[in-house]
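Researcher: Sequence of Spermidine/putrescine ABC transporter substrate-binding protein follows. Predict its structure.
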Amino acid sequence: MISSTDGAVTAAPLRTGFRWLQLGMGIVCMAMIANLQYGWTLFVDPIDAAHHWGRAAIQLAFTIFVVTETWLVPVEAWFVDKYGPRIVIMFGGVMIALSWILNSYADSLTLLYAAAIIGGIGAGAVYGTCVGNALKWFPDRRGLAAGATAAGFGAGAALTIVPIAQMIAASGYQHAFFTFGIGQGLIVFVLAFFIQPPRLSIPPKKKQLNLPQTKIDFTPPQVLRTPIFWVMYLVFVMVASGGLMTAAQIAPIAHDFKIANTPVTLAGFQMAALTFAISLDRIFDGFGRPFFGFVSDTIGREHTMFIAFGTAALMLLTLSAYGHIPLVFVLATAVYFGVFGEIYSLFPATCGDTFGSKFATTNNGMLYTAKGTASLLVPLASVISAAYGWKAVFVVAVALNATAALMALFVIKPLRRSFILGNEAESTEAAIAKTTAKTETA
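Model: Prediction complete. Tokens:
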């Protein structure tokens, strides 16, 4: 750390490891909110067994959580821009702890839904702040930084899935909610004291032809008026809907396929198919986010999207045809989540590249609301599966991912480049005209 002449604290120079420390703390905070989404599936059937509310009614809490988590991020991002990340993350830590404590006492759907709203507000505060902060600290490695931060959210549940499942089996889901809720919230609250944004402008190291980045910082109202934002929003929704459905319904799917408790042996490990699948899913999801972020820093955002979305479509097609085979179920879901999670690294990085760093937290927050829009399709998956079976749900998801892969190359890529180059040309012409006017006046 260094101090400015007016006494304000300024982030250490880029050559130090300070920004990596900030990234690491953001990753840990993200890991602490991961169970609110990815551990939820373990609680669905135990809650239903205790209260007989029905899967659809219980899964509505998941949808409420995701909608609240995502759609309020732009508001929370505004607080970050005004008051800094520390207070917003502290607030998030309190809210996620309160959410799971309420879940442990919920004896009605109303209280369950209220807890989902509180958890969504808290998780969104942490998620949006940490990803936005990573984009500001690493304009030269946006894909990797956003991917590593999002990996905390994707893989954070991997280490706790088995302990949560064991605690639910041993002492009930209420005890698991209460214990992990307090622990996760406390860790986020403490780390919030040490998180801060960069106080100096950090320029990208060099310009890459396959990785166009704007030199202009667009305000949120300007971003909302651009066609490229809404195209990216649409593709985000198309891809996110399948992943959210699978994450929320993986336990019911495994039970309906009658393989949930079937032992699966892989690489010397043996677990029940459902537990094995969820554990591997979190690991692959966590690894995939920084990996594809790094790849996108090298070959470009849209080419990476095409590879990931295409692979996702193939894995969903495999699940549709062979998901009733335990080993295939475990491996296909693992690979699917390995390529699904990259949307949480590629879209923030693409947003930062397209609209600039200054308002990156808010602009990315607006794009992130696409996840909330996609979550509205999760209950629909239960309805379709009840009428036509899970294969029909998978076929719809395959079509969405395949279409998104094509749109990445043939719509987003040319439109985004045209937007960046066009605005830079206009900015240059305006600067020249202003200089000329000043010269003539003199």
